[in-house]
Specification:
Oligomer: homodimer
Radius of gyration of chain A: 24 Å
CATH class of the largest domain in chain A: Alpha Beta
CATH superfamily of the largest domain in chain A: Glycosidases
Number of helices of chain A: 9
Strand order of the largest sheet of chain A: 18-17-16-13-12-22-20-19
Shape of chain A: globular
Structural class of chain A: alpha/beta
Helix content of chain A: 10-25%
Distance between the termini of chain A: 60 Å
Number of domains of chain A: 3
């Protein structure tokens, strides 16, 4: 057995041991561990990594001394050991937790998800993966949605670099590769052993999760989706359960993992609500760290009020209005609202993938001032065939810089985040600090409206510092202090906001 | 009695006679006329025009010889006469009627309302009125909404050129003239005789209706509204009824008159549904020409399914989505849908008055392809204080030229107009010719979406002529003929449309 004696808090402790290789170790043998410190005692499942190697991973939540024992049918031997957990280094705030309608890291630092989507970036050739990480290092986003299973969909009909199971994939019919619609559904010619995982596939995903962790980016892992020619979306309940358990055993010790149960769960026609609820039961039982859990819709929303769901992961269900429903979703579900799909900046032939940077950034702001969160995606139809939304790579749009600008503003919110303040009729949407009575902090966002000035009145004798924010040109202009009835001049352009801070008289 | 012996069909025949001046001729004496030709027999009410003059107006619907008799308590004398009605000259198609979800002139020519709003343009000084008519002569619009009563509202606090009643208005409190909100409601100091109309006021409006008629523009006359410091919105039922009867007697012989019962009827807090229904009864009884009738909302829509309402006159009830509800309104009310207020191009401080030209034109197109109609308005905060939406004058925005471009396209629709074709999910909205089975005429509108191409398939062996329409840059590009599965290239910009015409093989 090999392991390190010194581990950072909320990082991965890993014990590697040799064990039985006969029969099918993925299903016939087990390995488990119990980890104890002064403050916690946690039981975790390990997994078979191929070639006679079994691995146990554990994420310590305290900077304390830990003792562990490892046991199972994989080996006659039972292991004992101990290691020291040291306090975090900069940039490690622990896993993300829900706080009211918002999020925070386990160390209490606010976390405002500003996500992107690149469904199978980790299954592209090495050079594109590398590019993706370089792009993400620019700090535009702090969450990325991607899939464990490979994806078969428009612009992404090629084979992934690895498959999750032993076996051989169907051949892609070359004559039809330009048209996904001709190739919908499971194709003939697949030959998979769904009882034997391909460890290389999962090792690659772990490497990706870890690389994202280094960049301070949450890995919103999508466990299931319907865009499939190989049959991974139509396995039996037993095969599904084995997959979920394997994924949890492998990935849950990574603090930046979120469980997104599905992309467009309602397109997985062979799965029922009972199936999703059974997966939830497995996750609740086997993930000892309580990573965030969500399930994302296509047309019909899942009931986000189910107790196992930590936050809403929503795809727009209307072409014209989506982020504007944020407050309605907050009220309906009583949970954080993350609008994970609100159309992408791009120019492809599909309506979900060809809005402007302005419109995407507007949707981010509309969600944000209402106390919700939005997710980016980019779909430019390029000659190299590399589209961020599917493959990662480079970004060409105008929205990422503006989203980064918004992220910085969200990080200045007092308290956990914003909520929508009741506003006068049709004129504006106003965000104020959530969970705080009179926060004295207001963001008036005007979206596609273009007022040349706005009048304010709060109460006599109270002074506000005012800033004019150009959300598109990314400027924040201090326009002075005001009290009583006052007017702020604006340029009469779209995408402007006014931020007011009550001046404390200390 | 004076009258002309030769009248154009659907124009105003007018008989002017002298009568009693004692007591209060507006209420104490009546004058009526009966007009008969081979094809119709119509009874109309006349009105008192002051200075002992009574007038009877009549609009002949047939090019025939008419005989008439005029009688009433206004005079002991009974008059008889006759006149010849000649067939229309170019540009006169008769009054506008409803045809299914659309409109047509009485001569059967299609009429697609493309309106604007200038609430009290006719109550501004002569030079601005003149400017307004010059602007309208550019042919941007074929309908204009305006009020009979003067308007007291932001940007329009000055006195009108005339008042509808004898008496004196309240003085405007000079200190507060910059702020309508300080001056809401009826102000003290008004002294009106609500039993005596001011004929000059109504003569001016007639002149305006006639001038619009010359330009081929429908006068969508707003009879009541709440923006009032004089008390015209809070008269008694008897005073209201006298007003409605007087307006009908004076104006209904003008073929281009529409009756808009109110602007924002729900803001007239002293009026009940019973009041509106009573006015409707009066109009039905006293307007022999059946001019179009509508009633426009602020927040709560009137029940447009009421039989007296000929078409829906709708103000948006949502900031983000309005024209997109057109098909829902058609289904709900079963009548033409005219979106008479969907925010204005401008830059004032109010959200309803500061959208871009792009957004306003987009809303026109969204309404149009769904088989509805939209109305323009412009609110730029100018140093001269003249805002089109209230005063008329000149237009400074980018939308009017584009609206005119749309109007020309609507006029090319086969049949009465468009309706929304069921479209695939989120990608587009498609208009097709209404009332026609397979019209072979399709407009695919992409709004804020920016596809770089679109794929089509109707049926094998049928050829379509395709045009790419840039609704903002106002170009129509013939891109050839296609059949089977075909792809049309697009520039990946916003506000594009594709029009397809089935090619007839004669």
């Amino acid at each position: 057995m090999k392991y390190r004696k010194l581990v950072e808090r909320w990082c991965v402790f890993e014990a590697v041991l040799e064990g039985r290789e006969d029969k099918n170790p993925f299903v016939d043998y087990k390995v488990q561990g119990i980890f104890s410190s002064r403050s916690e005692k946690v039981m975790v499942n390990g997994f078979y990594d191929g070639s006679g190697i079994y691995i146990i991973r554990f994420m310590p939540s305290f900077a304390e001394e830990y003792h562990f024992s490892i046991f199972g049918t994989c080996s006659k031997q039972q292991y004992e050991g101990s290691f020291e957990v040291f306090e975090v280094k900069e940039g490690n705030h622990g896993p993300v937790r829900v706080r009211g309608y918002h999020f925070e890291y386990e160390d209490g630092t606010s976390y405002h998800p500003v996500g992107t989507t690149a469904y199978v970036w980790e299954l592209q050739e090495e050079s594109i993966q590398h590019q993706t990480l370089e792009t993400l290092a620019q700090g535009y986003f702090n969450k990325i949605r991607f899939c464990i299973f490979p994806k078969h969909y428009q612009y992404n009909l090629h084979d992934p670099i690895s498959y999750p199971y032993e076996g051989t994939p169907c051949k892609l019919n070359d004559e039809k590769t330009d048209d996904y619609y001709q190739l919908r559904g499971i194709q003939p010619g697949n030959d998979w052993d769904f009882t034997r995982f391909n460890p290389v596939h999962f090792q690659n995903i772990e490497k990706s999760i870890a690389a994202l962790g280094e960049l301070g980016i949450e890995a919103d892992l999508i466990l299931m989706h319907a865009y499939d020619r190989w049959g991974f979306s139509q396995m039996s309940p037993e095969q599904d359960d084995q997959y979920w358990r394997y994924v949890i055993a492998r990935f849950s010790a990574y603090r930046n993992v979120w469980w997104s149960f599905a992309n467009e769960y309602d397109l997985l026609k062979s799965k029922t609500v009972q199936d999703w609820e059974r997966y939830a039961q497995i996750v609740l039982e086997e993930d000892p760290y309580h990573h965030l859990r969500s399930i994302h819709n296509c047309v019909s929303m899942y009931d986000h009020s189910r107790p196992w769901i930590t936050h809403c992961s929503i795809q727009r269900i209307d072409v014209y209005k989506c982020a504007e429903y944020t407050d309605d979703y907050r009220k309906r579900y009583g949970k954080p609202v993350v609008l994970d799909e609100i159309a992408y900046e791009g120019n492809i032939d599909q309506g979900w993938g060809n809005i402007s940077g302005q419109e995407l950034v507007r949707r981010f702001w509309e969600a944000s001032v209402r106390g919700g969160y939005a997710t980016h995606g980019e779909t430019f139809d390029r000659s190299d065939g590399v589209l961020w939304w599917s493959h990662g790579g480079m970004l060409y749009g105008e929205s990422p810089e503006r989203i980064k600008f918004l992220k910085a503003i969200l990080d200045e919110t007092p308290g956990a985040g914003l909520r929508q303040k009741q506003s006068w009729f049709f004129d504006e949407v106003v965000g104020t600090a959530d969970e705080i009575g009179d926060s004295g902090y207001y963001i008036y966002y005007y979206g596609f409206n273009r007022p040349n000035r706005r009048k304010f009145y709060f109460q006599d004798g109270v002074t506000y510092k005012a800033e004019v924010i150009d959300t598109w040109n990314m400027t924040i202009t201090d326009v002075g202090e005001y009290s009583g009835i006052f007017t702020i001049q604006l340029p009469g352009r779209e995408y402007m906001a006014i931020r007011l801070w009550k001046v404390n008289r200390a």
